[in-house]
Backbone:
């Protein structure tokens, strides 16, 4: 009887151990799936930005070419076509700035940084990124107030499209750019800590 009980206890223990192993594997699989979903979100947002920029660029080109043909062939054009082209130029410029900020490819003057050491260059990058983020967020705040004023005025830009809708890209773009430069500054601070720990 003792031997039988020992065998039963060992079988129960092995079953419990296998159940724990299965639970551990299931938890690991769930964590990997969650991490995969979270890591795919930035890629999806980048693709959306690229698609929106391409669509806006194609729309602007088509509208400009259409206006040229209508004026040359029929001595006329779409009444609000020129206004739409100017607004599309604004949107394309700001979307391009957003895309450049995610890759840290904005125009910069690196006369001094090329002569600095590696750590000093990272510190200079940290200061530059923080300064850029602060300026962008200030511009975003004031442009948001400007858009609110346009919303209250109720002006029309073209074809029953309100002015504030056309200008809403300004605060949105500067919020995105400022946030991305805050992340770049955080990465620079991590690099500084890493260099200090190595030393």
Residues:
């Amino acid at each position: 009887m003792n031997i039988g009980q020992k065998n039963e206890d060992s079988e129960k223990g092995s079953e419990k151990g296998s159940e724990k192993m299965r639970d551990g594997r299931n938890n690991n699989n769930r964590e990997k799936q969650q991490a995969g979903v979270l890591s795919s979100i930035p890629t999806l947002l980048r693709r959306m930005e690229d698609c929106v920029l391409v669509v806006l660029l194609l729309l602007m080109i088509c509208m400009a070419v259409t206006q040229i043909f209508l004026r040359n062939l029929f001595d006329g054009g779409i009444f609000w076509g020129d206004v739409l082209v100017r607004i599309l130029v604004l949107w394309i410029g700001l979307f391009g700035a957003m895309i450049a900020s995610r890759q840290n490819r904005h125009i910069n003057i690196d006369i001094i940084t090329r002569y600095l050491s590696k750590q000093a260059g990272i510190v200079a990058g940290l200061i530059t990124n923080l300064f850029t983020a602060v300026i962008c967020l200030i511009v975003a705040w004031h442009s948001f107030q400007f858009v609110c004023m346009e919303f209250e005025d109720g002006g029309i830009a073209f074809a029953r499209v309100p002015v504030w809708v056309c200008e809403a890209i300004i605060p949105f773009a500067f919020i995105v750019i400022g946030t991305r430069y805050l992340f770049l500054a955080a990465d620079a601070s991590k690099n500084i800590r890493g260099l200090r720990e190595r030393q």
Notes: The chain has a mean pLDDT of 80. Strands lie at 156-158, 161-162. The chain has five helices and two strands.
